[in-house]
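Lab notebook, bench 4. The sequencing result for the construct came back, and we need a structural model before the next group meeting so we can plan mutations. Quick request posted to the team channel:

Model the 3D structure of this chain.
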Amino acid sequence: MKSALLRLSFALVLFGTTATATSQTTPPTRAFEFKDGDRVVILGGTIVEREQHYGFLETALTLAVGQKQISVRNLGWSGDTVFGHARSYFGPPTEGLERLGKHLETLKPTVLIACYGADLPFEGLIKMPEFISGYRNLLELVRSKNPHVRVIVVAPPPLENLGSPLPDQTEANAKLEDVRNALKEFAGKQGAFFVDGFELMGGAKKERPEHPITENGIHYAEAGYQQWAAKMIEGLGLPKQDPAGPAATQLRRDVIKKDSLFFNRWRPANETYLYGFRKHEQGQNAAEVEQFDALVAAEDKKIQEQKLKILQALPQLP
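Done. Here's the predicted structure in token form:
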């Protein structure tokens, strides 16, 4: 049994070496331990929500845990904050957190990956104490629904300077560095695993990148998500992966399909007509939303089967 595990570990490292190196950052001395059966929920704003369209992070994570079976659910919401602003629809931010609480009760995560703070440089660092307090309340909400959840706090990545007419992001990156420092301390106090997404993605560089990975200095393009996924895996201390390589093509397609189905499950179109104050018009259709559960579960099964095929095809030690 032990020799089989050693072969699997070595094979994973071999698979990871096919990935294109994007940085010489020294990997962490410790790794986050994922367990078989873990239910992973990813929370955050725009960077998290848009990842579902590319699937690099989940594909890399699925491969990095080896034969262990995990499920991943993306609860990212563009423009969201630790206070729940974007989730609140027509009410105050507290309404957004209440909605999040209901989703957490349903999903019952055992692992939470949270990436917040990218908006803070534009809000003014005078709000840092308020931000940390809001983050603490957010984690308290998560733990109230799932007391044994293991938390990963991710620092938001730096912005890119793409030149005129786009704004210079030097000052914003200096503030993001302060956010990173505050989050590292916060994670320690919360007993959470910390991933320095700011430094792993290059830190506060002032020069224009030769090969931009954002659309506008802020929002990642496909290359940005591919690099971010690689750095997240590195920050978690897991074996390197190549989610964009030929071996992972079908797996990533399955991940993207599953994420699309899940998005329609938890954020259905015309939700006001299904569950809100206009449900008297189309509320009878709300029952159909739950039918997505079986479709998502079927994709989870396909993802695990496809992952095992990839692992079995890896070189074996004699």
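The chain has one domain: 32-312.
Will bring this to the meeting.
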